[in-house]
Every structure is written in C-alpha cells, then in structure tokens.
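Inverse folding, one chain.
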C-alpha cells in the first residue's frame, strides 16, 4: 500500500494467511459502496489504497459486491470474495457472472465458483521449488502469470507465485484465489498452496466444474 491514510468506512483484511497467522493478501472492503457511486470514484480510491484488490459492498444483505484493482474492474477474484464473505458473514455473494456460495469451516472460509469466471492467465510449471523462489521479478511477457512447482506431489502441496503483469502498482500478488482455482481444475485434484512470502490457499475441485477455494482471514483495521 502507498503512503495514504485509509478513510473511514473501510475495513482492511489479510486473506489467505499462513498457519502462523502471518502474510496473506491485503484487501480493502468499503462497507457502504454508495459513498463511491461511480466508476471514477471507485478507481481513484482503489488506486490510492494500493491493494491488489478493493471490494465495494453495494448490498450487504444480498452480498452484491464490486471488485477493483488499482487499474480496472474485475468480474471475479478469489481473495476479495473470501475476505468479503468472512467479513459480511454471508452464505452467498452476488456477482455479475453469477452467485458465489460460501461456507465456514473452523478457521477457514470457503467460496465455491466456476473456473470460467476467473480471468485467464498462464499457469507455468517449474521444475523445482528453488526455481520458483529464485525469481526476483516477473518473468518477461504479457498477461497474468502463475508459476508453480510441486513441494510434495503425493500430498498435493504446491509452491506458487503470481505476477499480474498489469500496468499498475502491483508487481506480485501475495495470494491469488482465482489462479489457485484454475490450477486445481487443471490438475484435477485438491491442493494446499504456499504462495508469495508464506500465504496458504486450499482448493477442492468438484465434478460439476466448480472449485472450492478456502483460507484464513484476519482483520487488520476496522472502520
């Protein structure tokens, strides 16, 4: 996040925290989206906050939300929806692409969504965890990139890093639920993903083409 004071009415969360409660991807949640009624005001705020995503809640009872990066609107994204579901304590979130169902399981919040809702990206397998860890910047190329390697294939444990490669302030995503969904669907199995500096994302694909994505959420600052 850049040097900008968070305005009143915005909660800050960390989503997909590790087992020790650290790391996770920062998320801003605007509880009353009416305070930012148009596209321009929402993009200005998302850019000033500097999080990889900010969620605007347009109807807290129905779970209608709007997801923004610092540069654009997203029809779907994993970590904002897991965070918003936890904060609003809802069983369904309404998106333009369709309804996302939610469940709570102990310390984990889970959402179920369809992979075709996720923005497309390249999933690139590396030969070893060391190669993933060795990256000091986004590999050259265009479009979203998710690099990964097996930590323990038999156990479904994956090491991953995500590079949006957008023209904005986010060079690397600490935890990316949509990418985890796509990888889980491609491999056809449940995964336990360690992404970024130490975030944890769990996935479970279903026969109907949906994928569950789950993780821990912590409140950093309340409005």
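Residues assigned per position:
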């Amino acid at each position: 996040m850049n040097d900008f004071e968070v305005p009143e009415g915005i909660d800050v969360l960390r989503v997909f925290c590790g087992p020790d409660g650290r790391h996770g991807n920062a998320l801003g949640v605007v509880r009353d989206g009416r305070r930012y009624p148009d596209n321009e005001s929402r993009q200005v705020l998302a850019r000033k906050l500097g999080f990889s995503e900010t969620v605007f809640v347009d109807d807290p009872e129905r779970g209608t939300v709007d997801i923004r990066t610092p540069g654009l609107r997203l029809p779907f994204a994993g970590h904002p929806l897991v965070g918003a579901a936890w904060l609003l304590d809802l069983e369904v979130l309404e998106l333009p692409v369709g309804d996302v169902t939610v469940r709570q399981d102990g310390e984990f919040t889970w959402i179920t969504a369809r992979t075709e809702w996720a923005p497309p990206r390249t999933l690139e397998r590396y030969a070893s965890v060391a190669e993933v860890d060795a990256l000091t910047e986004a590999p050259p190329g265009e479009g979203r990139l998710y690099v990964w390697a097996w930590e323990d294939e038999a156990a479904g444990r994956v090491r991953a890093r995500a590079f949006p490669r957008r023209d904005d302030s986010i060079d690397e995503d600490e935890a990316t639920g949509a990418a985890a969904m796509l990888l889980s669907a491609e491999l056809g199995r449940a995964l336990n993903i360690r992404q970024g500096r130490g975030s944890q994302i769990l996935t479970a694909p279903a026969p109907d083409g949906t994928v569950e994505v789950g993780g821990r959420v912590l409140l950093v600052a309340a409005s």
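The first strand starts at residue 10 and ends at 17. The helical segments are 39-49, 78-88, 129-133, 177-187.
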